[in-house]
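Weekly structure sync, notes
Attendees: PL (lead), two postdocs, one rotation student
Agenda item 3: pending single-chain targets
PL asked that the sequence for the first pending target be pasted directly into the notes so everyone works from the same version. It is reproduced below exactly as submitted, 182 residues in total.
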Amino acid sequence: MPDYLRNPSPGAAKQSKETEMQTQTVNPYANFNPIEQAGNLGITVDPALRGFLPSGDVLEKAYERMLTSKDSYKQSFGLGVSNMRNQYGNQISQMTGGQGLMSMMGSGFGSKSRGIVKNIGDVRSAYSGDIAGGLLNFQNQMRSADYKFEDAKKDYDDSLIDRLIQLERLYGEDKPDYIQFT
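Predicted structure, written out during the meeting:
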């Protein structure tokens, strides 16, 4: 389960935000090493070629953009939920004239109480549908941010491999140890 869905209660979100502020996320791509990344792809590269390899700045920036987007999506979802609560709370309050449900029911089991119960059910159903739609949209946005970052990593790996192939053609005959594809 994604970390942003583990504890959806409003108090947990506040606590999570405070904890997040205390433990700032460190960008794992800040000190990116293309030689290590080549090794992860099964390619051994001589460290002397590091200056000829693509910079990892692209990944660092893509990671930061992903975090920024996710923070924005979290805030937007939280505001949307708050707005829905206020909107549907106001609708119920308007139905009862601000006097509470019991004051509108009256005594007995007449059509008045059935109508109010039906209206409350309709409001609850609309609220549930809006919350579900908002949550689905939020999950899609979070996944989209992840996919964009994964695309940036794939693009980097492709450019790294292309550069290594170029360097292999350039230096391969003279220095066969520089680059070894496994």
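Discussion points:
- The first helix runs from residue 10 to 22.
- The chain is about 70% helix and 5% strand.
Action: rotation student to compare against the earlier draft before next sync.
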